[in-house]
Amino acid sequence: MSHEVLGFDVTADALLEKAKRDGAETMWDRKAAMKASCGFGEKGICCKNCSMGPCRISPVEGKGAQKGICGATADTIVARNFARTVAAGVSSHSDHARDIIHVLHMASEDGNYKVKNPEKLMKLAKEWEVDTEGKEIYQIAHEVAEVALMEFGKPFGTQRFIKRAPEPRQKIWKDLNIEPRAIDREVATILHSTHIGCTSEVDSLMDMSMRTSLSNGWGGSMMGTEFTDIVFGTPTARSTEANLGVIEENMVNILLHGHDPSFSEMVVLAAEDPELMKLAKDNGAEGINLVGMCCTGNEVTMRHGVKIAGNFYQQEMAIVTGAMEAVLVDVQCIYPALPKLAECYHTKFIATSPKAKMEGATYIEFNEEHALDITKKIVREAILNYKNRDRTKVMIPQQKSKAMLGYSVETIIDHLDKVVNSQTDVFETVKPLSDVIWAGVIRGAAGIVGCNNPKVQHDNSHITIMKELIKNDIIVVTTGCAAQAAAKAGLLTMEAKELAGRGLREVCERVGIPPILHMGSCVDISRILDLVSRVSKERGLDNSNLPVVGVAPEWMSEKAVGIGTYVVSSGIDTFLGITPQVTGSARFVDILTNQLEDKVGAKFFFEEDPTVCAQKIMERIEEKRDRLGI
Ligand code: XCC
Ligand code: SF4
């Protein structure tokens, strides 16, 4: 067992020992059984796009097979594989968004789903020129939703939200012909183009990857955030707690794991039902304890303060505590191993989405029409399972940290308004933020996002980079499992300002924020794009001019590749702590880490050592400041 990899995670060792005692298999057993990962796959030089193959290119130049049977070179194969990874990532995020938009489309005054944020809806209707005159709010909601749904498949035109980008950025996209069109079209086109005998030209594959990724960044993902806010409310600052210690000894524990708030929000509602609360008490529990994991955890903690049990890598550990009555999942990032693991305990593993039926799971299909009835039924199952808990098998770690979160762009601006000089300044803008960056009080900003990956110590890269950056007056915004790492490490507290440099500390004190701002789920990276673009526009600049970076220290998913690509295509340098599967093509690596800068003003950096990565980020930020002459 790779214990050296776990040293950083204080809850892991004891739970892994326990798993062994309980005869429960974990990812570490499977990782050990895997031995080394496939060298060809690692470099991205295995192609199975047709059944003349699979073809694999020799990693040694000039020795062994240098081309696939069709003649595809390593460059083409790597670029094609990368493009398909982007397409899968874009599909996942955007298809999630599509579901949320359907939810708004069915929202009604007396239904399960309502319009919680009518102001945001009206703003969007105006932005999209949907006529609102004399219409009641639900009619507007349905019309706006319909317009949004067309963004997925409209035959003509480009994504509506690209107009939100700074003008110089829009021009770059136009000139390169990478303005994203309908989302489904971009995905279908890139799958077509990577079919055997289509695109072999590497730059073209890169351009298509960028365009496809942008259809998510400035399309699917951004709509996901906007529509989630409209239906469930825009997040506001609130406090919670994070880490496995939030699991309660004497309560019915229910883990929400996955991504889609149209399900998890309804579970939150169901768990507040007085009858179910009484049922929990009648069954000997003190109450119902909902805890979240991965991005659905982020969604419900941002809007309700639901406690965070942990991030991606802890999904097995939450079950190994032996105190989890039910694990409720919808889509994405859920280990197929969980149903089997749950069998080692009394835990009920309930899959709910037809998009993610899971082998060995209890399947209770969620559908939006009967949302609350179904989630009540599911919560009831969990409650009734409480009596089956084997107390001798329970071990809940004590560790948990307090955290402040809920920093949507709107909430950040609200906070900034507090420090605006009412005589001389304008409200409701990001000007105070851009002013402190220009003054050098804050040197720049970093968006630290993404998953966990057993190739590196759990959470260590996230936390090392975060601490290093805030110490050097770089403000951090964060989403996804990185944000949950920060929460567990106590970095999302007001007290964490003590770890910040003098400038950032002062800003935290004056504005009343932590030095690291939790901005939501991975779909909410669109909030970061929005924030950065507002600063650019405020200064009349492009994103690529600003001293800001994106960082994915421990990423693992296809979604992350899609995100990284749209972040770079949006003009923001992106640092990857895990090297993507592209190193089999020196040319493609050069495109990602060098040539892209000439094209879109930003590029990728690969750096696996978190301390060195932080150093490189700071150098890049100072370089950008120098170029601006600030
Ligand atoms: Fe998944 Fe979104 Fe990654 Fe976490 S950060 S492991 S993608 S849950 Ni999105
Ligand atoms: Fe081999 Fe070409 Fe087929 Fe890929 S597309 S499997 S490289 S023959």
From TrEMBL:
<dbReference type="GO" id="GO:0016151">
    <property type="term" value="F:nickel cation binding"/>
</dbReference>
<keyword id="KW-0533">Nickel</keyword>
<dbReference type="GO" id="GO:0004601">
    <property type="term" value="F:peroxidase activity"/>
</dbReference>
<feature type="binding site">
    <location>
        <position position="38"/>
    </location>
    <ligand>
        <name>[4Fe-4S] cluster 1</name>
    </ligand>
</feature>
<dbReference type="InterPro" id="IPR016099">
    <property type="entry name" value="Prismane-like_a/b-sand"/>
</dbReference>
<feature type="binding site">
    <location>
        <position position="46"/>
    </location>
    <ligand>
        <name>[4Fe-4S] cluster 1</name>
    </ligand>
</feature>
<feature type="binding site">
    <location>
        <position position="333"/>
    </location>
    <ligand>
        <name>[Ni-4Fe-4S] cluster</name>
    </ligand>
</feature>
<dbReference type="InterPro" id="IPR010047">
    <property type="entry name" value="CODH"/>
</dbReference>
<feature type="binding site">
    <location>
        <position position="50"/>
    </location>
    <ligand>
        <name>[4Fe-4S] cluster 2</name>
    </ligand>
</feature>
<dbReference type="Pfam" id="PF03063">
    <property type="entry name" value="Prismane"/>
</dbReference>
<keyword id="KW-0004">4Fe-4S</keyword>
<dbReference type="GO" id="GO:0042542">
    <property type="term" value="P:response to hydrogen peroxide"/>
</dbReference>
<feature type="binding site">
    <location>
        <position position="47"/>
    </location>
    <ligand>
        <name>[4Fe-4S] cluster 2</name>
    </ligand>
</feature>
<keyword id="KW-0560">Oxidoreductase</keyword>
<dbReference type="GO" id="GO:0006091">
    <property type="term" value="P:generation of precursor metabolites and energy"/>
</dbReference>
<keyword id="KW-0479">Metal-binding</keyword>
<dbReference type="GO" id="GO:0050418">
    <property type="term" value="F:hydroxylamine reductase activity"/>
</dbReference>
<feature type="binding site">
    <location>
        <position position="481"/>
    </location>
    <ligand>
        <name>[Ni-4Fe-4S] cluster</name>
    </ligand>
</feature>
<keyword id="KW-0408">Iron</keyword>
<feature type="binding site">
    <location>
        <position position="522"/>
    </location>
    <ligand>
        <name>[Ni-4Fe-4S] cluster</name>
    </ligand>
</feature>
<dbReference type="GO" id="GO:0051539">
    <property type="term" value="F:4 iron, 4 sulfur cluster binding"/>
</dbReference>
<keyword id="KW-0411">Iron-sulfur</keyword>
<dbReference type="InterPro" id="IPR004137">
    <property type="entry name" value="HCP/CODH"/>
</dbReference>
<feature type="binding site">
    <location>
        <position position="70"/>
    </location>
    <ligand>
        <name>[4Fe-4S] cluster 2</name>
    </ligand>
</feature>
<feature type="binding site">
    <location>
        <position position="451"/>
    </location>
    <ligand>
        <name>[Ni-4Fe-4S] cluster</name>
    </ligand>
</feature>
<dbReference type="GO" id="GO:0043885">
    <property type="term" value="F:anaerobic carbon-monoxide dehydrogenase activity"/>
</dbReference>
<dbReference type="InterPro" id="IPR011254">
    <property type="entry name" value="Prismane-like_sf"/>
</dbReference>
<feature type="binding site">
    <location>
        <position position="55"/>
    </location>
    <ligand>
        <name>[4Fe-4S] cluster 2</name>
    </ligand>
</feature>
<protein>
    <recommendedName>
        <fullName>Carbon monoxide dehydrogenase</fullName>
        <ecNumber>1.2.7.4</ecNumber>
    </recommendedName>
</protein>
<feature type="binding site">
    <location>
        <position position="259"/>
    </location>
    <ligand>
        <name>[Ni-4Fe-4S] cluster</name>
    </ligand>
</feature>
<dbReference type="InterPro" id="IPR016101">
    <property type="entry name" value="CO_DH_a-bundle"/>
</dbReference>
<feature type="binding site">
    <location>
        <position position="295"/>
    </location>
    <ligand>
        <name>[Ni-4Fe-4S] cluster</name>
    </ligand>
</feature>
